[in-house]
Amino acid sequence: MIRRRRLIGGTAAVAVVGACAAGLLALGPGGPAGRAPAVAAPVGGGTAAEVARWMTEEFPDDPYVWAQSGRAEIEEARTTLDAGRLDAADRALRRSLRLDPTDNYAAVVGRGMLANARHAFDGGRRFALRATRMAPDRAEGYGVLADAEIQLGHYGAARTSVQRMLDLAPSTASWARAAYDLETHGRTSDARIALERAEEAAGTADEKAFAAYRLGELAWARGDVTGAEAGFRRALDAVKGHPYAESGLARVEAARGRTDKALKRYGRLVGRTPAPQFLLEALELRVAAGQGRGESLRAALDAQLRLQRAGGGAVDPHLALYAADFGDPDVAVELVRREAKRSRGVIVADAYGWALYRAGRTEEAAEQARAAGRTGWDNALFLYHRGVIEAELGEAEGVRRVERALEVNPNFSPYHRERAEELLGK
What we know:
The protein is globular, with a radius of gyration of 21 Å. 69% of the residues lie in helices and 0% in strands. It contains 22 helices and no strands. By secondary structure, it is mainly α. This is Tetratricopeptide repeat protein. InterPro entries: TAT_signal (IPR006311), TPR-like_helical_dom_sf (IPR011990), TPR_rpt (IPR019734).
């Protein structure tokens, strides 16, 4: 059983929760007591970021107000997937630190959050360590540190950080990190308990939506379509239009044979939030269902590929997987190799291995696939990728891994499921 302030034992690691807008801490208690001005919000309210921007106009010389504005922009980037909000966050946090460069915990934590959001994990770690030195008994810094450490492949350090965070503040953010840690180490039942506690601890609509969504994803990952739907619908009850929950419901509909309904949901979703994950899911479903080549989806993904190749910034592994399966595998290798220099976590290793395999570099692919499996995550896509690679090398274990992928979640991918069944002779 999970104790209130204790992460379940065993080897553990903490990762940026979800991919789901990786690396962004939910906003929590902020700066020193008494620092936030007590004023009325603008008439009509608004998002946290909108209110925070208004506060900076009212109190332009208050470093804490600017720090909270920056962090609210990061949160808005997480929920809307609008990366442009990160530039606004950068400006606000820099302004905050100019106003108070010495005793500004909220801004230092914010800078760590921002670095992680931009996949600058070394920088995220530096800011997080600075924050934990400034305030060793405050939880937020340890969350940022855990997020950075897991992406850098420092699993033991990540576990220590998440445990410290959980000891200090058993909040939604703490329990969610504990849950991800447990899931990625194959402890799904314990991860579910941690997420249930995360949902119980939620104090805002965003926190409730996040915890419910993660419970839906955990159920989905185990092949529990009914449980997945329940989690996704609770997330949407908390936050209307929650993009990841909408994506989850589209997968549920597809798993139940309602392909047209799923594609319509995807169409609405990518129309307002054209994230690579959603575009790729929609494309795989359309192709697997024999409903054309998904030219508009390919065009949107190709455009994002060109931007990422030209920009040199953070790479979404879903784009690499798209290039590997539907485009140029050599481009996929180029992109994910670049990301692997920033992140040595298992999600990037899995994408790297698959890109190498699709590019005909099977021996190198097997090395990365093994790296992706080093935490013991019973992830159906990881199992499928590694199984196909090992089967290509004539290893009997490869076929067993593909079988296991279908046992864990027979709906893990409409596109790859057909190929898995072909390999197994079904």
